[in-house]
Amino acid sequence: MILGVNVDHVATVREARGESEPDPVIAAKMAIDGGADGITVHLREDRRHINDRDLLRVKKNVRNVELNLEMAATKEMVMIALKVKPDLVTLVPEKRAELTTEGGLDLVKSGKKIRKAIDEIQSRNIPVSLFINPTIKDVQMSKKLGAAMIEIHTGLYANAKGKRQTAELARVRKAVKSGSEMGLLVNAGHGLKYSNVKKIASIKGIRGLYIGHSIVANSVYRGMKSAVKEMKRLIRQSQK
User: What are phi and psi of 119, to 5 degrees?
Assistant: First the structure.
């Protein structure tokens, strides 16, 4: 089971001040040093965090691991994907007002547009994964539309507690099993944290987990001590 690390929110912190740091490319390299098998970036239509330059720099500097480009199934994004040629494209729903992706793709409402994007991208030998809700219907639709992979949305599981979480976990298990039986490669992600990842990671048939916010948030805690020590060292050094 591979781990794809999403570095979007490193760019979110950068954009909060409109400066050049923290740099998502440096974060991506450090994630790889930590064992990441892939790097994910979501190029949103409003460019609220990752921008076009980030994508090109990640493509140039991140080597020997999977580059997963999350994007909406729009004409602009398809053209960018065909130009950049990531290792994997994950099509996701996108709303301007949302803080983060709120659910899986509506494969019925947007099926025609999604199929067109799949056909264009996969004709260039770039596999496409569809970010879907954990339902058998969505798994079947993904197969029908011609996607090579699916990514099961684990957000409802991650946000639930008690019996509700147990029920959501069962839905994820069934969706993974169904996808595997249909010959799809099955990934999972969204809302996964250090406290809830183990039950998802134990599901047989999952190719990879895609996790971002929790890892970026935890890196702030784990790296703060050494960052402060280095700043103090420089200050003391300058006072000698």
Answer: -60, -45
Residue 42 falls in the annotated catalytic set:
yes
Give the SS3 label for residue 173.
helix
Evaluate the omega torsion of the peptide bond into residue 22 and state whether it is cis, within 30 degrees of 0.
yes
Give the residue carrying structure tokens 């990514």. Answer: 151
Domains of the chain: 2-238 (3.20.20.70)
The catalytically annotated residue of 9, 49, 70, 151 is: 70
Q: Is 70 a catalytic residue?
A: yes
Among 9, 42, 49, 153, which one carries the catalytic annotation? 42
Active site residue 190: yes
DSSP states of 15-54: HHHTSS-S-HHHHHHHHHHTT-SEEEEE--TT-SSS-HHH
Question: Would you give per-residue pLDDT tens digits along the chain (240 residues)?
Answer: 999 999 999 999 999 999 999 999 999 999 999 999 999 999 999 999 999 999 999 999 988 999 999 999 999 999 999 999 999 999 999 866 555 666 899 999 999 999 999 999 999 999 999 999 999 999 999 999 999 999 999 999 999 999 999 999 999 999 999 999 999 999 999 999 999 999 999 999 999 999 999 999 999 998 878 878 888 888 888 777
